[in-house]
Specification:
The chain is an alpha/beta fold. The protein has 14 helices and 20 strands.
């Protein structure tokens, strides 16, 4: 994790390997536009750097082809004198803010992340981006920290000294925020929160990126135990014997085909002054082959990421503890490996769930809803004020919303709207989705209470309706289908790396913060 400090030094005088400034685009008459030919303008914070260029930094950047577009990175050498740093990195913020406006926090977050990624392998960088208030400080700090990420656990060692080989993709080591106030309580609190949130997003990313032969249900549970010990959390792990004794037919039914038995982990943070209790439930399929309904070639190479929901829940609970939130936050990690074998559940088998309901399994590749169903029922027994589950659940949601947006379904419209608002605050793209009642009939089974499949069209909504069957009546519940944004198998962008992204961690943390503050009327 990169070190982060607040600096009262000037961007011109701070010793660093690079200084980052913001640039934006504005049309020639000075008004922000998305259509007119744009000229580059410097964002607040770049004044000292511009002075070192004799007031010609914007013109120089334009000559180099910079447009100020969001996330665009332009590197140029520092002038012979006037700057301690040898390199200037100009990062685009998109359309320029007007005199009465400030830059959007997500634009700042993405810009800082893009700059941090561009400085991989660098020791120290000074970020002179607009930080006019604590919210902006938080956005820049969080973006830079999220962008400074690299998964190196499986990198080779240098044969001569046994140490990790020098890697130019190693994350930026030190971040100094210029313009933020080191003695300002709000600024300090913003940075402290950003550090916690970013570290927990990194935790989730690391888990997601770990290959299945390095992370099975048992080792995932061990990670939870270690974190619980480190941060004062309670933890309970149900192994395969306890799951059988308790009647967790969904989790066992999915895990039966694997040599690595399933687990159900309960990890909890409690505050003595808490007035709200939240249950977070995460799908944790550490590898999903599809089971007997085997995935075709080309669809299973990244299925180590099918535990992204459990990773998000785990990290969010740890973050709640580290932030000392005045809420009781419990995470339920439904962990299993979905594999084909002679002991695997077959299409047509009927499972008796923890709730007592029976489910006909028509497709063993619709396994996430089975493990979640047991975990949702168990979480509901503790009568929380709200339940939120997170899962890489359906390809249908990816088709509907693409690779960067997760869907939100709920049994209460106000609660769904609240979660959407929270996601937007956190800077995560999400969209509310319905749960049409007429789709429930498609899950009727001639031999069981319901089937794990329904109509093909609207498959993401069908999955949500299936989960709803296992939520206690009267308890606000939301389902986040993060199948699209959980794993980025294309190029990195903004603060988002290639591979595991940590999707939903920030949304869950913000949700817990607002609930702790009594700022979610939908829970009233």
């Amino acid at each position: 994790m990169s070190a982060l400090t607040l600096s009262s030094s000037s961007a011109a005088t701070l010793r660093a390997d690079a200084v980052v400034v913001g640039v934006a685009k504005r049309d020639t008459d000075g008004k922000a536009t998305r259509t007119a030919k744009a000229s580059v303008v410097l964002a607040p914070g770049a004044e000292a750097v511009d002075k070192a260029y004799g007031g010609k930094l914007a013109a120089t950047l334009e000559t180099l082809g910079a447009s100020g577009g969001e996330g665009e990175v332009t590197k140029l050498p520092a002038p012979a004198s006037g700057l301690k740093a040898p390199l200037v990195v100009a990062v685009g913020l998109g359309n320029a803010a007007g005199k009465q406006e400030s830059y959007d926090t997500e634009a700042l977050r993405r810009a800082a992340g893009a700059a941090a990624r561009a400085l991989s392998g660098t020791k120290k960088a000074a970020f002179a981006l607009p930080v006019e208030d604590a919210e902006a400080v938080s956005a820049v700090a969080e973006g830079a920290l999220l962008g400074a990420y690299s998964f190196t656990a499986y990198r080779g060692k240098d044969e001569k000294n046994g140490k990790a080989a020098k890697d130019a993709s190693a994350p930026l080591a030190e971040i100094a925020l210029i313009g933020a106030k080191p003695r300002d309580k709000a600024h300090k609190a913003a940075v402290e929160r950003a550090l916690v949130v970013a570290e927990e997003v990194h935790r989730a990313r690391d888990l997601i990126n770990t290959p299945a032969n390095g992370l099975d249900p048992k080792t995932f549970a061990a990670e939870a135990r270690a974190a619980a010990k480190a941060f004062g959390l309670t933890v309970e792990v149900l192994d395969e014997k306890a799951l059988a004794k308790g009647g967790y037919g969904g989790i066992l039914g999915v895990g039966n085909g694997s040599a690595q038995p399933p687990r159900l982990v309960r990890i909890g943070w409690s505050h003595p002054k808490a007035k709200t209790s939240l249950a977070l439930v995460g799908k944790g399929i550490t590898y999903d082959s599809g089971g007997i309904s085997l995935k075709p070639a080309g669809h299973n190479e990244t299925m180590k990421c099918d535990m992204s929901g459990a990773a998000a829940v785990f990290s969010a609970v740890v973050a709640a503890a580290r932030l000392g939130l005045r809420a009781n936050v419990t995470g339920w990690l439904a962990l299993a490996e979905n594999m084909p074998s002679g002991s695997a559940t077959r299409p047509g088998d009927v499972l008796t769930m923890y709730s007592g309901k029976t489910v006909e399994v028509l497709n063993t590749d619709a396994e996430g809803r089975l493990v979640l169903a047991d975990a949702l029922t168990r979480a509901g027994e503790e009568q929380p004020d709200a339940i939120v589950d997170v899962a890489t659940l359906t390809g249908a949601m990816v088709l509907a919303l693409g690779n960067r947006t997760f869907g939100i379904m709920a049994n209460d419209d106000a609660f769904r709207s609240a979660l959407h608002e929270v996601a937007e605050e956190a800077g995560e793209a999400a969209w509310p989705m319905p749960l049409p009642g007429h789709l429930r009939k498609g899950m009727d089974s001639p031999v069981a209470d319901l089937a794990n499949m329904g109509e093909r069209m609207g498959g993401g909504l069908v999955a949500g309706l299936f989960l709803k069957e296992f939520v206690p009546e009267g308890t606000p519940w939301a389902h986040l289908d993060i199948a699209g944004p959980a794993f980025n198998d294309s190029g990195p962008f903004g603060y988002t790396p290639k591979g595991g992204t940590g999707s939903a961690v920030r949304t869950l943390v913000r949700f817990a913060e607002r609930a702790a503050a009594g700022d979610l009327p939908s829970l009233g």
